[in-house]
Amino acid sequence: QLLFPLSLEFTSTEIAILQSLKEQLENTGFIFSKLDKDIVELKGVPVSVVESNVSVVLEQLINDVENEVPDNNFSQTDMLAKSLAKSLAIKAGQYLTVQEQEYLVNSLFACKEPSISPTNRATFITMNVEDLDKKFN
């Protein structure tokens, strides 16, 4: 829960998208105190979402819903999880401590599918010494 409610402004179309996802968002840890017209007021966010990133996370989610090609293989909850993963991902150039790096690698390999991202991209590659030498020589 947040110490103070967080108010965010969205268009009526964006509010409609958030309303359609309200139950799934609440299941992930978002707690809405208001969701109408052009205002979203949150009194709680998931533990993994930093308060300063809430608007970015919700905007990314709305963008994904608006631009995502419907896929019958994935539920709305899966799409939400994919969008949250994408918006909360560690960005290029972001500094991580050794402990954070170890946690990240351990968490990756604890996943059901560690070699594929939520967007079906490879998460890592394996190279032998000869291939590595070719890259630098």
From TrEMBL:
One of its GO terms (biological process) is mismatch repair. One of its GO terms (molecular function) is ATP binding. Residues 1-96 form the MutL C-terminal dimerisation domain. Gene3D superfamilies: MutL, C-terminal domain, regulatory subdomain. This is DNA mismatch repair protein MutL. It comes from hydrothermal vent metagenome.
